[in-house]
C-alpha cells in the first residue's frame, strides 16, 4: 500500500480538479457560498480542502469537510494526510462518533455530518470554522439536510454580528441543483468537466428471485469469459451478505475455470487495514473482485473497475408509520443510483455494467431516492435542534418532512419525557441530558433510566456493545465450531444478556486477542465497545448518575432497556402459552410467529439465542430487518405486562398488545 510521496503527487496532478485549480481557487475566494458538481473520482473530496489550505484561504479558522459515512471520513482523511506527507491527527484529522483524531493544530478536518451537527449544539455559529464543505450532498442524509439549515443560519448571523465570515461549499456528484441553488440564495454552481468512458449496460431478461445467487452466477460467467485484468465491482447490501457471497465465491473458485481471483470486501465495519486492500493492485494475471455496500457508489472511488455487477438493492433505515418504530429494509435503488453505480465501470477505460434485473423494472424505478428526512425517524435530529436552541417549526429545510412524521417523533420524545408537550416542544431536564449522549435517543433514555433499576453498570456495557458493529465473528467454514463455543455465553433471556455475558468475559480475559480468536469474537469491535463504554461512562459521571450493578437480576436490565425501546416489542401470535406449532425447538417452529406493534409478522433472526428455546410470549428487539421477511435482530424475552409498567402512555396507544 506504501506509495512514495512522489507517486502521490503525480496521481494528484492527473485529477480533473487539479487541472482547473486556479479557476476553482478564484471562485472559492470570490463566493461566500457555492455548489460544486463533479463526477465521482474527480478529486473533490481529497483535493479541494488541500487546495484551500495551500492558499491559506481558511485564515485563522479551520476547514470542516463532512461525509455521510464514518468509513469515508476516516479513509479519506488518511489518504489526504499521506498526500500532504503529514501524520494523521496533526494538520489533517478526522472526527467520527467516539473517535476524535484531531488536535488544536488541525486545519483540514474530515468529520461525519452527525459529528458536525453535535458540534452545532455547543456552538450553533460553528465559530471554529471559516470554511465548511458539505460533501456528498446528493445523499441527502438527515444530518446533512439539517446542516444545510444550520450553516445558512450561522452564515447570516455571523455576517450580522460582524464576526469572521463563514464560507460554505456544497459538493456532490449528481444533484437536483435547482432546489439547492434556490435554497442557497441563487449561489453560483460550478461544474467540473467529467472524464468518463462509455459503459455498456446489460439487464437480465427475467426477474431474479435470489440476487445473491444471481450475483455469484454472473461473477463466474464473466470470470470465464473476460481477461484477468478486468476488475469487478459487485454491489451488495451489507456485511453479512458480503461475507456469505465471499464464502460462496471462494468455494466455487477452487473448481472454476479462469484466472486466479482476489476477493476484497468493502463495508463500514471492516478494519481499516483490510479496507486498504481494495486499492491494492492485484498481481498480474489475477482478477480483483470487490464486494461492496453502496459506499463504493459515490463516497469512495476504486480505480480500474471494468465490470460492475449491480444487484439493484440497498439497505436503508426507514421510519414506519405513526408507531415511531424504525427498521432496516432492503429496497430497490433509484435510477440515479443505478447510473451512478454503472458509472464506476467507466472511470479509466470503457466498461460494462450488468444489472441483475430486467430493463423494464429499471424504467419503473423512481428517478431519485427520497431524502432521509422524508422517510426516517426524526426524534434524534429534533432533539439536537432543540438542544441547540433552534425552533424546529421555523427551521429552514429544503424538503420539509411529512407532518405526521414530525408528530410521531414529537410524541415519542414526549413519551420519553424529553419534551414538555408536543404542542410546546421545550426540552425537559431529562431531554437536555439525553441530548448530551452521542447516541440514539432511545439508548440515552436507557442510560438515564438505569439508576432507577440499579443497573447502570450493565446498561453502559450493553449500550456500548449495541453501538458497535457485530461482535461475533463466524467464519462460514467453522460455523458449527463457532456455534458450540458460543453456547457458554448464551442466556435463556435472549440476545441482550448474551451480549452482556460476552462483553463481561472479554473485559476479564487477560490475553484478549488470543481469547477472541478462540471464542470466535471480533477483537476490534469489542475493543471499540470498551472505548465507547468509557466515553459514555464519563458523560454519566458528569451527570452524577450512580453507577450501580443489578448483578444477576437481569430482569431489571431488560426492564430498563424497555424504557428506551418500548416501540420495539413483539408478541407471540395466539397469545403464546403451550400448544402452537410444537412449542419451539427447531428454528422453523418459531419462524413468523410474532407480530410487532405495527401489526407486522416477524421472525426471530436465525442467529438468536432464543431460537433453541420455547418461544417467549413477548419480545423486545433492537432492530427490525426487512429482507423478503421481517427479522428481529438482537431479541430478548420480556413479560408482556412490563410494557404497561415502564411506558404506560405508549402501551395505551399500542392496541396490538393483546
Ligand atoms: P471525488 O470526491 O470527486 O469523488 P476523491 O477526491 O474522493 O474524488 O478521489 C480522487 C481520486 O483519489 C480517486 O480517483 C481515487 O481513486 C483516489 N483515492 C481516493 N482515496 C484513495 C485511497 N485511500 N487510496 C488510493 N487512492 C485513493
Ligand atoms: Mg467525494
TrEMBL record:
Domain Helicase C-terminal residue range list: 250-349
SMART domains: DEXDc (SM00487), HA2 (SM00847), HELICc (SM00490)
EC number: 3.6.4.13
Enzyme class: hydrolase
Keyword tRNA-binding: no
Catalytic activity: ATP + H2O = ADP + phosphate + H(+)
Occurrences of domain Helicase-associated (ranges): 408-500
Gene3D superfamilies in alphabetical order: 1.20.120.1080, P-loop containing nucleotide triphosphate hydrolases
Name of the protein in its database record: RNA helicase
Ranges for domain Helicase ATP-binding: 13-202
GO CC terms, sorted: nucleolus
Keyword ATP-binding on entry: yes
One Gene Ontology molecular-function label: hydrolase activity
A Pfam family annotated for this UniProt entry: HA2_C
PROSITE patterns listed in its UniProt record: DEAH_ATP_HELICASE
The entry's keywords: ATP-binding, Helicase, Hydrolase, Nucleotide-binding
Annotated GO biological process: positive regulation of transcription by RNA polymerase I
Amino acid at each position: 500500500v506504501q506509495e512514495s510521496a512522489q507517486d502521490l503527487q503525480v496521481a494528484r496532478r492527473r485529477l480533473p480538479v487539479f487541472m482547473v485549480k486556479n479557476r476553482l481557487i478564484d471562485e472559492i475566494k470570490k463566493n461566500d457560498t457555492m455548489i460544486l458538481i463533479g463526477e465521482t473520482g474527480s478529486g473533490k473530496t481529497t483535493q479541494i480542502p488541500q487546495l484551500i489550505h495551500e492558499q491559506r484561504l481558511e485564515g485563522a479558522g479551520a476547514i470542516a469537510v463532512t461525509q455521510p459515512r464514518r468509513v469515508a471520513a476516516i479513509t479519506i482523511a488518511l489518504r489526504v494526510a499521506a498526500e500532504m506527507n503529514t501524520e494523521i491527527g496533526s494538520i489533517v484529522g478526522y472526527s467520527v462518533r467516539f473517535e476524535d483524531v484531531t488536535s488544536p493544530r488541525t486545519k483540514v478536518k474530515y468529520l461525519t455530518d452527525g459529528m458536525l451537527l453535535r458540534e452545532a449544539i455547543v456552538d450553533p455559529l460553528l465559530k471554529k470554522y471559516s470554511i465548511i464543505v458539505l460533501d456528498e450532498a446528493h445523499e441527502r442524509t438527515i444530518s446533512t439536510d439539517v446542516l444545510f439549515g444550520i450553516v445558512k443560519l450561522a452564515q447570516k448571523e455571523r455576517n450580522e454580528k460582524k464576526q469572521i465570515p463563514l464560507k460554505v461549499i456544497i459538493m456532490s456528484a449528481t444533484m437536483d441543483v435547482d432546489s439547492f441553488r434556490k435554497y442557497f440564495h441563487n449561489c453560483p454552481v460550478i461544474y467540473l468537466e467529467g472524464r468518463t468512458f462509455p459503459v455498456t449496460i446489460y439487464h437480465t431478461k427475467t426477474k431474479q428471485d435470489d440476487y445473491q445467487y444471481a450475483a455469484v452466477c454472473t461473477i463466474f460467467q464473466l470470470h470465464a469469459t473476460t481477461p484477468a485484468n478486468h476488475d469487478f465491482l459487485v454491489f451488495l447490501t451489507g456485511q453479512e451478505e458480503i461475507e456469505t457471497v465471499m464464502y460462496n465465491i471462494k468455494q466455487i473458485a477452487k473448481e472454476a475455470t479462469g484466472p486466479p481471483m482476489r476477493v476484497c470486501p468493502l463495508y463500514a465495519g471492516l478494519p481499516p487495514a483490510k479496507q486498504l486492500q481494495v486499492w491494492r493492485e492485484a498481481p498480474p494475471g489475477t482478477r480483483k473482485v470487490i464486494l461492496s455496500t453502496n459506499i463504493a457508489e459515490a463516497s469512495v472511488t476504486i480505480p480500474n473497475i471494468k465490470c460492475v455487477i449491480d444487484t439493484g438493492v440497498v439497505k436503508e433505515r426507514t421510519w414506519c408509520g405513526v408507531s415511531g418504530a424504525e427498521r432496516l429494509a432492503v429496497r430497490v435503488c433509484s435510477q440515479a443510483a443505478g447510473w451512478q453505480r454503472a458509472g464506476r465501470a467507466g472511470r479509466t477505460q470503457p466498461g460494462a455494467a450488468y444489472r441483475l434485473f430486467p430493463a423494464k423494472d429499471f424504467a419503473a424505478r423512481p428517478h431519485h431516492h427520497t431524502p432521509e428526512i422524508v422517510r426516517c425517524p426524526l426524534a434524534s435530529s429534533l432533539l439536537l435542534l432543540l438542544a441547540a436552541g433552534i425552533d424546529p417549526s421555523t427551521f429552514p429545510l429544503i424538503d420539509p418532512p411529512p407532518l405526521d412524521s414530525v408528530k410521531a417523533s414529537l410524541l415519542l420524545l414526549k413519551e420519553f419525557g424529553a419534551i414538555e408537550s408536543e404542542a410546546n416542544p421545550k426540552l425537559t431536564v431529562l431531554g437536555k441530558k439525553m441530548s448530551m449522549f452521542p447516541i440514539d435517543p432511545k439508548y440515552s433514555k436507557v442510560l438515564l433510566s438505569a439508576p432507577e433499576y440499579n443497573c447502570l453498570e450493565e446498561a453502559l456495557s450493553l449500550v456500548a456493545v449495541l453501538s458497535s458493529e457485530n461482535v461475533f465473528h463466524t467464519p462460514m467454514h467453522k460455523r458449527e465450531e463457532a456455534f458450540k463455543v458460543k453456547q457458554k455465553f448464551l442466556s435463556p433471556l435472549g440476545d441482550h444478556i448474551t451480549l452482556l455475558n460476552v462483553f463481561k468475559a472479554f473485559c476479564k480475559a487477560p490475553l484478549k486477542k488470543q481469547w477472541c480468536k478462540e471464542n470466535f469474537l471480533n477483537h476490534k469491535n469489542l475493543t471499540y465497545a470498551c472505548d465507547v463504554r468509557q466515553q459514555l461512562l464519563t458523560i454519566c459521571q458528569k451527570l452524577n448518575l450512580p453507577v450501580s450493578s443489578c448483578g444477576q437480576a437481569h430482569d431489571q436490565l431488560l426492564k430498563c432497556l424497555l424504557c428506551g425501546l418500548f416501540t420495539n416489542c413483539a408478541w407471540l401470535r395466539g397469545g403464546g402459552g403451550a400448544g402452537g406449532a410444537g412449542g419451539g425447538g427447531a428454528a422453523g417452529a418459531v419462524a413468523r410467529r410474532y407480530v410487532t406493534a405495527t401489526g407486522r409478522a416477524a421472525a426471530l433472526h436465525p442467529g438468536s439465542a432464543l431460537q433453541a428455546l420455547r418461544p417467549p410470549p413477548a419480545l423486545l428487539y433492537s432492530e427490525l430487518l426487512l429482507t423478503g421477511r421481517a427479522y428481529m435482530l438482537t431479541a430478548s424475552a420480556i413479560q408482556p405486562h412490563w410494557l404497561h409498567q415502564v411506558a404506560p402512555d405508549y402501551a395505551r396507544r399500542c392496541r396490538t398488545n393483546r
